[in-house]
Task: structure prediction
Amino acid sequence: MKLQGSCHCGAVKFSVESNTPYPFSRCYCSTCRKLNGGGGYTINIMAEAGTLKVEGEENIAVYRSALNDRGRYEEDGRGYSRRHFCKTCGTMLWNHNPLYAQWIYPFASCIDTPLPIAPEHRHTMLMHKQPWVEVAEGPGETHHRQYADTGIEDWHRERGLYGKL
Ligand SMILES: [Zn+2]
Ligand SMILES: [Zn+2]
Result:
């Protein structure tokens, strides 16, 4: 499906195609919490980097976090995540990691297109969760101390949801 996103002040607008638009995965790590996660976590979806069209690209700044909760990115082989945001209003737009260059990871919070409702939720990096943050429990709520083993694409494929919308 085609996703339209924008920042709050309107300086940046973008569109991108996604086969993996279900906002099912929550990350409770400190980077996500501090930079975007007012509820104690952030939600990224995944889209095809080659289809990204940006209006107002000159208004984007990039934050490259040198540290994650497990130490330096280069030491755990995951490369650097680059968080793109609006220079004027601070809206977080998407994550990009050169190791996974074919994808961008838009923040669900800046997508204006109504996203599909996820049938299940995945809660990751819970070992870094703040005590005040409550995590949903019950059927369909899976809990992970760190990252889950399957990625966003596999999650969609396993449920027959890949490219469905
Ligand atoms: Zn803005
Ligand atoms: Zn995180």
The pocket of zinc ion (ligand 1) is lined by residues 7-9, 11-12, 86, 88-89, 91 (CB under 6 Å). The helical segments are 30-35, 152-158.
